[in-house]
Every structure is written in structure tokens, then in C-alpha cells.
Amino acid sequence: MSDARRNVVDIFNTDGGLISSIGSRGREHGEFNIPYGVAVDKEGRVYVVDSGNFRLQIFDQNGKFLKQFGGVGTFPGNFARPKGVAVDSDGNIYVLDAAFGNFQIFDFDGNTLLAVGNTGVDPGEFMPPSSIYTDAQDRIYITDQINKRIQIFQYLKDEPKKEQSVAR
Known about the structure:
168 residues, mainly beta, 46% strand
């Protein structure tokens, strides 16, 4: 759970017991400037949108810093007003950006794979997107605040190519 006022993320177990607290105000690893969105992957890693520092930080299940990526800017891989984060079953990371009106998809190393959406009222456009979630079927749910809707996308996995045998 993120606490933007305290610049802390609290990690709880499934029984509601506090495991650890991460953070304080700052720019260094493990510090935050308005932590906003939080997600946990199937390995137990914790992903935190550090909104005021324009980055995503990743921690292990005990709160140990692992890596970060992002930065302020207008190019792919940068953020202007990051708000939410989600992770799919393949470990792809989705970061929602309210200022860009989109979400960007990254691999675990922070490489930009794709940006989806822009500002507007049509399908695939957002005003502004405010939260993101992925379910067990890799559907991606985006809360589109001013447009008063939830848009749903589907992550499509690459299917392995079957080798064709050649008759001789």
C-alpha cells in the first residue's frame, strides 16, 4: 500500500500483517516523492510508481531495492505524470501516465515494448487514465476518469511456431 503523504510503501502478508515499510522522501534508491501505484508479480516482487521522481522502482518481497527505470521526458520510456502500474503473467510491466493519456509496456529490464493510447474520447484514448489492473487472463483494465468508463484490453501472447515436416 502506498502512502503518498509519508512517502512510504507498506508491504503486508496475506493475513494483513506488516512485513516491511519501504521509503522516505528523497531521490535515492528506495526513496520516494509521492509513491502512487503499487503492483506485485507472481514472484512477489513489488513495483512502485514513484510519481514525483518520474520513475518505477522494483523491490523484492522483503523490500530490498532491485532496480529502477524511467525519468522525466516525452520520449518512450520516460514519464510525465505516472500514476499506476500492473504486471501480466509473462512479467511485462504496464505503467500508466495521466499526462500522456497512455500506458507504456516494458520488459523487466526497463526496455520499452509498446505505448498504447493517447488523450481523447475515442476507444483507446483516455482523459486522463487514473488506474490500471491486469487479471489472471492477462486482460488490462484502464480507468478512464473524465470519459467515465473502464476500457479493457487483452495481452496476446506469441504462440510458439510449430515446425513443419517436409515429406520426401
